[in-house]
Structure formats: structure tokens, C-alpha cells
Amino acid sequence: MLRNTSLAFRARTQVRVAASKATGVAKSKDIKTEDTITLTVTWKNLKTGNEGIALYTSSWVAPKADVHSQQRFFYMGHKGEIRIDQAHRGYTVSTDQNGFSSCNPLFMKYTKSASDGTFAGQDGYGYKSFSVFVQACREINDGVRDVKDFDRTLPTIGTTVCSTAVLEAGRRSLDDNGRPYDIVYESDVIGAHPTTLRAVKFD
């Protein structure tokens, strides 16, 4: 059973997940896990009943390439499309020794401060993520704010419960030889909470 919490308004929701995998590298190192996982997720527009599909692929194995991680997003809708290439941020280097590369710049300062030689990475996005989380915990524990006050600014359970349902359905699908799993909600009302997962039965 997935925990029910307050969610933001949702007119579209995930209703079915099927997973595929690629294996080999991890097994060769005696690691019992997949190399690459792709989830096929069916979305439903709760107002019109129209359905859409999305493919999500994640992999921890990759050959040496022009960037450390190939992060891409493509959306094609009824009236337009969106393309995002997060891996290529316009930072390229070309040398006689190493040839051409598209660098994925770091988001944290690892070198010491020029003024006093102390650590100077506090403004990096990784450190800020921890900082705002700790601050939120302090405010909640002190009774100043409530957990749902952070639903729009932090990845709380209220804003990640649907993503968690998709990931869990994907895991179950992988363990069930790719069988699709339906995400069952407490009702058909927009904003309803996912409550459980159900394996799809074929005739």
C-alpha cells in the first residue's frame, strides 16, 4: 500500500507501467542488477480520457563518450514539441592531444578559497540541496511550518508519490518478466492518490 498524502492538482496521471532491461556488464562483475532499464508508461488525461505514452530510460553503464551523462528529454504533443539536451550546455573543448569534447561542467567548486584556503563549495547545488532540506526539517520540528508547506519547493512524499508508484511498478514488472502493472488510484477524481499496484492479466 502506498502512503496517501496531499498532491498538487493533476489532470494527467500514470496508469500503466511495463519494464524492459539490458544486462551483461553488472553480471560480469558479479553484481546482481540490470545495466539499463526502460519503462514504458501509459498516461491518461482524466478530463478527456485520451491516453499518451512515455519512455524513460536510465543506465549506469556507458562507454567513454563526449560527456559524462547523456541527459535528454523529448516531448511531442498535439500542438508542438519540446527538445532538451541537458548534456550539451555549449561548453566544448578541442585540443591536438584529446580531440573534440563537449564538457559537462561541474556544479560545485572543489578548489579551496583563494582568500583563505578553506573549503568553498557551499554554494554548489549539491550542498544547497542538503541545506534547504535540513532547514525544512528544523522548521517542521519547531512547529513553524508543516510538511505540505514544502510540496512546491522540495521533493516531498506529496510530490513524489506518483513517481514512486511508477518506479515500484517498474521494479515489479522487471521481476515479472516484463508484465505490465496498473497503478490503481483511490478514485477517478483529478488529484486522487495512488493506492496499490495490480499486475495486468492477459487472456
Brief descriptors of the model:
single chain; 203 residues; alpha+beta; Dihydrodipicolinate Reductase, domain 2; five-stranded antiparallel β-sheet; two-stranded antiparallel sheet; 3 helices; 20% helix; 29% strand
Fold topology:
Blueprint: E1 12-22, H1 25-28, E2 36-45, E3 51-59, E4 72-76, E5 81-85, E6 92-95, E7 99-102, H2 125-141, H3 157-175, E8 181-185, E9 194-199
Antiparallel strand pairs: 1-2, 1-8, 2-3, 4-5, 6-7, 8-9
How would you describe this protein?
With 203 residues, this protein is an alpha+beta fold. The protein has a domain at 12-107 and 160-199: Dihydrodipicolinate Reductase, domain 2 (2-Layer Sandwich), CATH 3.30.360. It is 20% helix and 29% strand. It is built from three helices and nine strands. It has a five-stranded antiparallel β-sheet with strand order 3-2-1-8-9, with helices on one face. A two-stranded antiparallel sheet has the order 4-5. The longest helix is centred in the last third of the chain and has 19 residues, at 157-175. It is globular and about 65 Å long. The chain starts with 11 loop residues before the first strand and ends with a strand. The model is unreliable at 1-9 (pLDDT under 50).
Structural class: alpha+beta
Distance between the termini: 27 Å
Instruction: Find the count of extended strands (DSSP E, 2+ residues).
Output: 9
Number of helices: 3
According to CATH, the homologous superfamily of the domain at 12-107 and 160-199 is: Dihydrodipicolinate Reductase, domain 2
**Largest beta sheet, briefly?**
5 strands, antiparallel
C-alpha Rg, in Å? 21 Å
Give the mean pLDDT. Answer: 85
Low-confidence stretches: 1-9
**Widest sheet: strand order?**
3-2-1-8-9
What assembly state would you assign to the polypeptide chains in this entry? single chain
The fraction of residues assigned to DSSP E strands is: 25-35%
- How much helical structure, as a percent, in the residues? 10-25%
What's the CATH class label of the domain at 12-107 and 160-199?
A: Alpha Beta
Return the CATH topology of the domain at 12-107 and 160-199. Dihydrodipicolinate Reductase, domain 2
The second-level CATH architecture of the domain at 12-107 and 160-199 is 2-Layer Sandwich
**Rough outline:** globular
What pattern of helices and strands is seen along the backbone?
EHEEEEEEHHEE
